[in-house]
Write a structure and sequence with these properties.
7-stranded mixed β-sheet, 25% strand, alpha/beta, Metallo-beta-lactamase, Chain A, 14 strands
């Protein structure tokens, strides 16, 4: 089981997930050619992908979805309203619709979707369950809702948004309406809110946390890492590894080994 952020940030997002011999891409916010190039950096190629999962219609998540799916004959799993909202998706031979909250199977994988709070028509996050464990994926959300927390429980690997540092956002160059949008209920998750969510999700079986969708203008990698590290300070046992998603390069390529039996231990107050 492995996770690799091929790209993460406001200029393009794509995440490779591999488990039980199945290879999924969540979002395709780079060109099809660039996605294929970055996959080759981790010894794969776009022809190896079994499915493309789309979280929402914003350009930095779907700009390469149509060309990638057509060129490499990849089935695309997408909410119908999201597909309708993408202006340049084009014709895709294998569109597989689902609604937020639905689950579906890919090989031996069970993929579950859940609603997130973001200014898109019907945005979703995903949980991928395999024989090797659970991978949770939640980016582009304004609030860490109870639903999100419940769905992500028990993950071995988490991909969580840490979009902005709250003070950097307030002091930064963005116009006030944009600042309000980012920090609002339908915006993006701050470092602090991501840390609060992670504190609910931490358990002995959590091995890795990927910090995703960092803003170049309103965040700094070390600020995000520090906030997340602080929340894990009281962790019982081996703390999970923390990895930073990058915009311009492939992130750390994390492989999870065969899981050992563990006991759920959540961080207390």
């Amino acid at each position: 089981m492995r996770v690799c952020l091929l790209a993460s940030g406001s200029r393009g997002n794509a995440t490779l997930i591999e488990a039980d011999g199945c290879r999924l891409l969540i979002d395709a916010g780079l060109s099809a050619r660039e996605i294929d190039r970055r996959l080759r950096e981790i010894d794969l190629c776009a022809d190896d992908l079994d499915a493309l999962l789309i979280t929402h219609e914003h350009h930095d998540h779907v700009s390469g979805a149509g060309p990638l799916a057509r060129r490499h004959k990849i089935p695309v799993y997408i909410v119908p309203e999201t597909a309708a909202a993408i202006k340049r998706l084009g014709s895709i031979a294998d569109l597989r619709y689902f609604s937020a909250g639905d689950s579906f199977t890919l090989g031996t994988l069970e993929v579950s979707s859940f609603s997130t709070t973001h200014d898109a028509v019907d945005p979703v996050g995903f949980v991928i369950d395999s024989a090797e464990g659970r991978i949770g994926f939640a980016t582009d959300l304004g609030l860490p809702t109870r639903l999100v927390a419940n769905c992500l429980e028990g993950s071995r690997i988490l991909v969580l948004e840490t979009n902005h540092d709250e003070q950097m956002l307030l002091d930064g160059p963005y116009p006030w309406p944009l600042k309000q949008r980012i920090q609002g209920r339908l915006g993006h998750l701050s470092n602090r809110d991501a840390a609060g969510l992670l504190q609910q999700l931490a358990w002995e079986g959590l091995e890795a946390v990927f910090l995703a969708h960092l803003s170049d203008e309103n965040n700094h990698p070390e600020l995000a890492r520090l906030e997340i590290s602080k929340c894990l300070g009281g962790f019982v046992g081996s703390a999970p590894q923390i990895f930073l998603g990058l915009q311009t390069a492939v992130s750390h390529n994390f492989f999870a080994t065969t899981p050992e039996p563990v006991t759920n231990v959540f961080l207390g107050e």
